[in-house]
Records
---
Amino acid sequence: MTPLLSVRGLRSGYGAVEVLRGVDIEVGPGEIVALLGSNGAGKSTFNHTVSGLVRARGGRILFDGQDITGRSCRAIVEAGLIQVPEGRRIFPNLSVLENLELGSFARARARRADNLERVFGIFPRLQERTRQLAGTMSGGEQQMLAIGRGLMGEPRLLILDEPSLGLSPLLVEELFGLIGRLHAQGLAILLVEQNVGQSLEIAQRAYVLENGAVDFSGSSAQLLASDRLRQAYLGV
């Protein structure tokens, strides 16, 4: 099966600091793949480089067989690779509806009404609050809004960057249930998380970044069976 996303030898960083040092990662059509690692491992730099927000210093990024290395972030979104960023990055002074509509600015604008209906079907709470300013919502509601905004662009691959960050345990359970439902609809997801245990329960495969390089990779079952990974990341 041809990968939907294929990253080979990716190097990236900021100024004189090289953060990613030859990272290889693949995501197949319809897969959930987890990218795991502690703070400072390079996860967000990977997301930003793949999404065109940070320029790659080496390696190649292929999306659906097309080389997108060095393309603008808008061109990458137009191709269907959409990121839900860490910290949600909603527009606090805009309404819920306005935030959602911005998700279709670069892609799927002609199907905005249909996609709004789909998002409201997934998140009925957002439909109840279309006129509410996004900045007045709870953290869990803002995460719903951020994911809904990403879905408005009809992603072929959705990157979720630390989606459980700052959420209560109950909301984390709801979030992972939602990710499972999106996957069941055929959406490919790259789940970038510090929550190793729950990520491995839902993902088919996983990569673990450490100091800007892939330290572990394999099926979720293989990683859960690794004594070294369990000791380092699960504390068992």
---
Amino acid sequence: MLQIFFLFTLLLYSSHASALDFCVADPKGPIGPSGYSCKMPAEVTVDDFVFSLGMAGNTSNIMKAAVTPAFDAQFPGVNGLGISIARFDIAPGGLIPMHTHPGSTELQLVVHGSILAGFVSSNNTVYLKTLKTGDIMVFPKGLLHFQINAGGIPVVAFSCFSSSNPGTQTLDFALFASNLPSAIVEKTTFLDDATVKKLKAVFGGTS
């Protein structure tokens, strides 16, 4: 009897595991800390597991850079798998400013050009390196980091993340593209009123 019970349990577990091979994101459903809800299996196609990062992003902006994400919102097949990727295009003179990924470690590979990259640890130690084509660098989860074009040619890099939705908060945008009152920005950054208002005008912030 005990053997039959164990056999039944094994069959039940195998059947359940098979049904949970993946959870393709349903963009019409709710999203929470664990990601999107799952598409019905009958609605899943091979295209949910394929994404193209072959096209350069538009670098005609203040940063002279573009990030093309393949996170769960764009690439439904990675939902719940703990992995995603993004393409970085950085024009000469461009940069990805100080930012953090609250939900993920980042591993970046430079495939064209060179970048000056670095991160700041929680004890304010700076780790800085010029990366050339073929170099990789890891940015630990949650730490502020940046990438700057270090040459006179466009940069192409790809970053892998340990989450299907790593989240991104850019320091400049948080301070100067939000409606955080200027008086608070001035007090917390030691910047003067004129500088804060100038930066808010550049980034589109209010208040």
---
Amino acid sequence: MRWPETTTLLLRADDGVLHVTLNRPDARNALNALMIDELDAVFDAIAASREVRAVVLRGAGGHFCAGADLKEVIAGGLKAPAPGEADPIEAWSRRFGAMLRKAGQLPAVLIAVCEGAVLGGGLGFSCVSDIAFAQVDAKFGLPETTRGLPPAQIAPFVVERIGLTQARRLCLTGAQFRGREALALGLVHECFDDETELQTRLDASLEQILHCAPQANAVTKDIILKVARMDMDAVLDDAARQFARCVRGPEAPEGIAAFMQKRAPKWARGT
């Protein structure tokens, strides 16, 4: 698979796993327009690939992501556009939201490694991930309102992740908190103290993912994500259709045969 050329991201493919590292360490990996565009292109490539079964999203230099690059937002122009003109700030914001939603809808399993600054958009990435790990001293928060801004493209994903009651508290106070509280809130799934513990937990999760059939995982994720967005009967009707397609597809016969023969299926790592 040929991946897009990037300057704000580091990409490393390894046995069905794509490691994507946000690489603006001098800015604590704050999101500028170029990084948003490059993430968008990489996510498109992942969605089109049959090779990638898991994506590990991490930040360079000890920080995950400090949110939006506000210097660039302001540089977009504070003067309101003339009637009929496109608003560059509105377009910037909406493009970020579209990219964040695309990350959450990837057919591959998305793993977020949260350490250092996990603020604004960085917290948004944790909300759209399938699995999130947090370093115990990582600093989470939605500081937008303390800067006179709403977390406009992030708040909806926070509500989906942890529910309305806690989302209201976090979004309306600008409170910052550490990794263990993020775990208690349900923002992340596991905490780690150091790199050694992270690698142990990450390797265990990747091993589990790579023993699952990739198309079955993609279909399962699609069903799960529809629950909050569609009438339940429509979700179940669609799930039944996808189940039938999977039964007649290539993975189910192999998976059932492997189970009956007490062996690993062909898609499992190491077979």
---
Amino acid sequence: MSKFTEDSKQLLEHIGGSENIVAVSHCATRMRFVLKEDKKADIKKIKNIKSVKGTFAQAGQFQVIIGNEVPDFYNEFVGVSGVDGVSKDKAKDAAKGNMNFIQRMLANLAEIFTPLIPALIVGGLILGFRNVIGDIKLLEGGTKTITQLYPFWAGVHSFLWLIGEAIFFYLPVGITWSISKKMGTTQILGIVLGLTLVSPQLLNAYDVAKTAADKIPFWDFGTFHIQMIGYQAQVIPAILAGFVLAILEKNVRKIVPEYISMIVVPFLALVPTVIIAHTVLGPIGWAIGSAISGVVYSSLTSAFGWLFAAVFGFFYAPLVITGLHHMSNAIDLQLMAEFGGTNLWPMIALSNIAQGSAVVAMIFINKKTKPEEEQVSIPAAISCYLGVTEPAMFGINLKYVYPFLAAMVGSAIAGVISVASGVMANSIGVGGLPGILSIQPKYMLVFSLAMLVAIVVPFILTLLLSKTKFAAKFAPED
């Protein structure tokens, strides 16, 4: 009998038994259930199980936080329950049966960017490091950068752009690959499609605006022309093209005999998609992306930018609960492509910090009365300050409610400071405290002030709220 046997039996009982489980999987810290009837799960009793650190429902799944030992717990639970586990992807597919159309659409879009996040984070760190050594005048009385004085670091600066360019300029390749993977179609065709959007023979997307219309190169087909415009760093054209390719391939495969499908299907799926991408989808997607980024940028830089910042800063954390926060990646990347940076992403980093600071306050509040809670709260706070907020929100802040609200308020105030000061990030990257590395050098000082606000305000507000009737009203039962 393993140390999780009894806890697994209790979880099975309180979740409604094996007959209530449609699918079960696990991620890094959580058990993920798709249930026939969510109301059969006794959340209060589940939270009282020794190994359980919290529960929440998201994207059609009932999730139980276990911690780093979740693989062992999962194996024991599968043995006790007799339920066959499935992959996370299959569990997500099953969960979509519990969603409406809008939720399914947004979940699908979010899943496109999830596999790309590691690369985007690496790219953000690289651009941030290049900021430090190549853009900030740290030496000789603030007149020289490190790269200006040291050839070695100048070489590092130049070399690292090889990776940064691969991640951000050639982002459409990653998007079309991710869509092919998600849709279960031929992934190499997705990669090839992405490459046709960023080929070196095309006019670079960054040069289109400064090129006269009659100077843009084109393919001459006699009776008509197709402009040779690239879509480097463009998000929406790649999404549209990726889905058209997947849909075409699936439908062509249905009607083509199996014995010639290897030859016919790739040709009839890829070639028409590339043509459509460069004649219809690319221009339309560019227009849509420019409109979205233009609206966001104008909102953040207008006289009412502070209001937009306050609303976004306040509600970003609830977006994380729904899983819709991944959608902000697309907007950030579009802003980077259109304006050479993003003023949205700095607010996300500040929201991460604010949630962590609320947890730190809870550590202080419960230090004597609930010392065992530090097993969850200390790692959760560290995780927040490094850009991952889910352990803090689901393990601590939402459990008590008032620290979550305190963090939302702190995030809103810090966001207003950031936007009112015109703070721009070169790229998205690691959230939380390391996020300052992605901020454009001239804004680092004022962003530091916003970070300080995101640390101090949630901490103090959490302490104050802990002494109110509001906190007592939502106090979890031990």
